[in-house]
Specification:
Layout (H helix, E strand, L loop, with lengths): L15 H10 L34 H6 L1 H11 L2 E6 L2 E6 L2 H10 L4 E2 L1 H8 L12 H11 L5 H5 L2 H13 L6 E3 H16 L7 H19 L12 H26 L7 H7 L10 H14 L2 H16 L1 H15 L13 H13 L6 E5 L3 E3 L2 E3 L4 E4 L1 H4 L42 H18 E5 L6 E2 L3 E2 L4 E6 L4
Parallel strand pairs: 2-8
Antiparallel strand pairs: 1-2, 3-5, 4-12, 5-8, 6-7, 9-12, 10-11
The structure holds protoporphyrin IX containing FE.
């Protein structure tokens, strides 16, 4: 057996005293004095508490070195904290009620904003994740029908079959590169279901290379280099984007050449006619395809990686999951009809997404100077809704750093709705939420019926484009011999 002490899943840098301080801080002291008075406007409201970093650089170094630790530090300052990093002014928000304000109740006062747009322009400037206002509304309306329960449920069989094939390939006792294996799995499922295309290994590698190049160019120090200065990361990015563009062009050309009716997302994109009679231009089709290839695979595969990792470290959870598999499935694989009965599996997924939300933070920008939590928030600040940190806050979660799927056995009526929001919220919540939840449940049960996972080295989650667990090598034991 491995030394599991070095393989725990709690992050070590937060001490018990810090935990207590966070618990005791409470919400009241953390808001602006004028929070209760909605008539106090931008001009009269106080500025948020500010956490200064280094002169000129602000918290840029900490941002790149350990973004999660920077979040811990800011969270200790209060629920709304201003700071500078990467040449921008941010306001970090750690209060679920304020998250709900920004995403839902006052959603039309905030946009994705410059920071998100800058990032998205590296990949798909006209894709659904990025566009705003009327353009977003008409795109979302057009694409939403591809995600109805009836449509999504047709994909269950592919999700199960591919997971079964993956696990059946693993030799007993071997060490598998889990994150990479699950990344290939989720990309292939996404392509075969929503887009009805087969991405062979070579084409899949083009997408994954592009994902890696973007992560490097945005989260490495080279992102600080001036745009005119070519660095190894920017050169890799240019190459990867050219490869991705060729691939997308080929996929579209191949589809246009095929005869017969298609009823999938790619067909929706290619044949779309908006109510005013216009169609989607080639550039937007390209961006949309790229958006879905990216938004829909790294997120699900990292969540699945964390779920397997967590199960490996928590035998009592694994035991309860196995008991559910025996009761609900007996000796067969799951189907869509089993989904509602796989209640504990769903709690495992929910708890995984609480501890390790792949989209670890959301960004917004006010459309005009405003107040948030009683603090003046100017139109040029970037608001950072701190998903990861809110989901581990002791005010809303008992033993917040622990993996306890049973915490969801019952609803806690005192917990704010936005104490967990792994899929965002409001009109711009994740369009793929139902797809992802179904895939996670089906893949997890299909894998768990076949293998047990054993940790072989610690993980070190780092905030890149998604909350990246690293390679996550895991030893697999076939269940007959486990
Ligand atoms: C565990 C898996 C997933 C997680 C945690 C996740 C998380 C999120 C979050 C937090 C947002 C909101 C972003 C914001 O408000 O700024 C979002 C939006 C989005 N997601 Fe997901 N996602 C997942 C899977 C998927 C899948 C499978 C697809 C596609 C098949 C997808 C496509 C999208 C798209 C297109 C948007 C933008 C929606 C809009 O702005 O209208 N996601 N996702």
């Amino acid at each position: 057996m491995t030394d599991t002490d070095s393989l725990t899943d709690e992050r070590p840098h937060r001490t018990a005293a810090e935990e207590r301080a966070r618990d005791e801080r409470g919400t009241d002291t953390a808001r602006g004095e004028d929070a209760s008075d909605p008539t106090v406007g931008f001009d009269d409201a106080p500025s948020p508490p500010r956490d200064d970093g280094l002169p000129l650089l602000g918290h840029t170094v900490a941002w790149f070195r350990d973004g999660l630790a920077l979040g811990d530090r800011l969270q200790r300052r209060g629920d709304v904290v201003e700071y500078d990093a990467v040449g921008r002014q941010f306001v970090a928000v750690f209060d679920p009620e304020l998250v709900e304000e920004v995403l839902v109740t006052r959603g039309d006062e905030f946009q994705k904003g410059e920071f998100e747009t800058e990032f998205a322009s590296l990949l798909a400037p006209n894709g659904l994740v990025t566009v705003e206002d009327d353009e977003w509304r008409r795109q979302r309306r057009l694409l939403q029908p591809a995600f109805t329960p009836g449509r999504i449920e047709q994909f269950a069989e592919t999700m199960v079959d591919d997971a079964a094939a993956l696990a059946d390939d693993w030799a007993d006792g071997s060490v598998v590169p889990l994150r990479e294996a699950l990344s290939s799995y989720s990309l292939s499922v996404l392509a075969r279901t929503l887009l009805a295309i087969d991405l062979d290994a070579e084409r899949g590698a083009v997408v994954r290379e592009a994902a890696e190049a973007i992560a490097e160019v945005t989260t490495g120090v080279s992102s600080l280099a001036p745009e005119w200065l070519p660095t190894p990361a920017t050169r890799r990015y240019d190459r990867a984007m050219a490869g991705l563009d060729d691939l997308v062009a080929a996929l579209i050309a191949e589809r246009r050449e095929t005869t017969g009716e298609h009823d999938d997302l790619l067909a929706t994109l290619l044949d779309a006619t908006y109510p005013d009679g216009s169609t989607m231009d080639a550039e937007t089709v390209r961006d949309q395809l790229v958006t879905f290839l990216f938004a829909g695979h790294e997120t699900s595969s990292t969540a699945l990686t964390y779920a397997c990792w967590l199960l490996a470290g928590h035998p009592e959870v694994r035991e309860r999951l196995d008991a559910e598999l025996t009761t609900v499935l007996g000796d067969r694989d799951p189907t869509v009809a089993d989904l509602s009965a796989l209640q504990y599996t769903e709690q495992v997924v929910e708890e995984t997404l609480r501890l390790y939300p792949p989209v670890f933070t959301l960004y917004r920008q006010p459309v005009a100077d405003t107040t948030l939590g009683g603090y003046a928030t100017s139109a040029d600040t970037t608001i950072q809704l701190a998903t990861y940190h809110i989901q581990r806050d002791g005010r809303w979660w008992d033993a917040p750093e622990e993996f306890r799927p049973e915490r969801f056995d019952d609803d806690d009526p005192d917990r704010p709705d936005y104490a967990a929001f792994p899929f965002g919220g409001g009109p711009r919540h994740c369009i793929g939420m139902r797809f992802a939840t179904m895939e996670l449940k089906l893949a997890l049960t299909t894998l768990a019926r076949r293998v047990r996972f054993e940790r072989v080295e610690p993980i070190d989650p780092s905030p890149r484009v998604v909350l990246d667990p690293g390679e996550t090598p895991m030893r697999v034991w076939r269940r007959e011999s486990a």
